[in-house]
Amino acid sequence: MKRALKTVLFLNTALVAPALLSPAWAAGYGLKEQSAAAMGAAYAGVAADLSNPASLSYNPATLAGVADTDFAISLVEIVPHSSALYTTHTTALGTPTSGNASPQNFIADAPIPDIAIRHRLSDDLSVGLSVSVPYGLKTNYPTGWAGRYYATKTEAITINIAPSIAWQATPQLTFGAAVNVEYARGQLESAIDIGTIGFANHIPGSVPGGMDGSARLSGMSWETGFTLGAIWQPSSDLSFGAAYKSAITHNLTGPFTFTLDSFGVGAAIRGATGLFTNTRASAHITMPDMLEFGARWKMSDNFTLMSEFDWTNWSRFKNLNVVAVNPAQPSDFTLANWKSSVFFSAGGEYRLSDNFKLRVGAGFDESPVPDATRTPRIPDASRTWLAGGVEYRLSPSSAINLSYGRLFDDNSNIVQTSAGSGNTLRGNLTGATSSMVDVVGLQVSSAL
């Protein structure tokens, strides 16, 4: 029995830690929704938009567009529609895993706020402040669903506070910089197949897939980074913008808690080994660096053509090492191997009158998640953007924007086996997920 429980110590490492800290925290759902106005053109040209105060959240050099003082308050509501069908769902021993194999609407709604304010100090110097949500994720599966050993609940959010400054080197060229003070927190949960652990170690009465416990990690972190940007205006009708946002590595730290089965198997394991004892844990997670390029061309008095190209270095997320304070809960290594991804879009802006302006755009957002590491916690897929919006000027100095977008996600396959890295006791899970997202945004901006 003692030797069997030593085996449990190893098996538990492969089950619990990776299940809680799989690539969900790597922000596979990076958020672009910092400006409802820019959303109307699928964010085309936002890195070069001097007229929109909310562009500050993308490129600090857009401070050059402020005449005296202005601000923008933006709110975008993300409304996803998700479904999945899993055709294979068994424990590590091959016995069927009970529960719902076709979950619906497991990706949750989320509001994304943004505040930006700009102020000109002199002819060549401007300052500003933005508060944004650059990364976020929320998935919630029904209790007892068939893939519960891979994920049950994930909540992750970052809040970025960025004071910024810009220097207009020439009338055509502006350089900007921002300090990013970023807060990250999250809660990650998954079920534990205590029945299989007990059965594999000859604990009497153990039933694989029938004696579940659960584990939950809550963590938070404050870290800093920076953004550098530039705007070049070779003429009054043409502007180019570029920005680089540094990577930020968070050391997420918080309570690591367990709920055990009602049959006493988990309690016996805990009493003999110290496993499943509430403790604290930490993990280093890197939010990736990214490059943004935008262009705007005013082709006539009424029409402006815009484009955007962004590159995000998700390849920084190669693995995850989880360290528990409890010495009986060993550290765990999980392979991720995400890849760098791109986003590009094109759009147009048409001025109907002095008070009304229309926007339309389309884009493509590439998923960073390889097929081999996609899990139910982040069933991410590449997506196509279609968007439109309208701006109404309340006065010469203030405007309100209303935008709508539809994101069409590609279908994504999930093929995970107990032989995979970190999956020793999560079992086998094969299926496909699909989703579609509606986004609605409202923005108010004004000069003071």
Protein described:
This protein is mainly beta. Mean pLDDT is 89; it is low at 1-27. The chain is elongated. The protein has a 14-stranded antiparallel β-barrel with strand order 1-2-3-5-6-7-8-11-12-15-16-17-18-20. The protein has helices spanning 2-20, 36-39, 194-200, 265-273, and strands spanning 69-90, 110-122, 125-132, 136-140, 153-168, 173-193, 212-235, 238-245, 248-259, 279-287, 290-298, 303-312, 319-324, 332-335, 341-351, 356-365, 383-395, 398-409, 412-416, 428-447.
How is this fold's topology laid out?
Elements: H1 2-20, H2 36-39, E1 69-90, E2 110-122, E3 125-132, E4 136-140, E5 153-168, E6 173-193, H3 194-200, E7 212-235, E8 238-245, E9 248-259, H4 265-273, E10 279-287, E11 290-298, E12 303-312, E13 319-324, E14 332-335, E15 341-351, E16 356-365, E17 383-395, E18 398-409, E19 412-416, E20 428-447
Antiparallel strand pairs: 1-2, 1-20, 2-3, 3-5, 4-5, 5-6, 6-7, 7-8, 7-9, 8-11, 9-10, 10-13, 11-12, 12-15, 13-14, 15-16, 16-17, 17-18, 18-20, 19-20
Give me some keywords for this one.
448 residues; mainly beta; Porin; elongated; disordered N terminus
Give a short summary of the structure.
The protein is mainly beta and 448 residues long. It has helices at residues 2-20, 36-39, 194-200, 265-273; strands at residues 69-90, 110-122, 125-132, 136-140, 153-168, 173-193, 212-235, 238-245, 248-259, 279-287, 290-298, 303-312, 319-324, 332-335, 341-351, 356-365, 383-395, 398-409, 412-416, 428-447.
- The poorly predicted ranges are 1-27
> How does the helix and strand content classify structurally?
mainly beta
Strand content: over 45%
* Name of the CATH first level: Mainly Beta
Largest sheet: 14 strands, antiparallel, barrel
CATH architecture: Beta Barrel
Number of strands: 20
Q: Shape, please?
A: elongated
Trace the largest sheet across and list its strands: 1-2-3-5-6-7-8-11-12-15-16-17-18-20
**CATH homologous superfamily grouping:** Outer membrane protein transport protein (OMPP1/FadL/TodX)
Number of separate domains = 1
Count of discrete alpha- or pi-helical segments spanning 4 or more residues:
4
> Compute the gyration radius: what is it?
24 Å
Order of helices and strands: HHEEEEEEHEEEHEEEEEEEEEEE
The fold-level CATH name is Porin
Measured distance between first and last alpha carbons: 74 Å
**Mean pLDDT, rounded to whole units?**
89
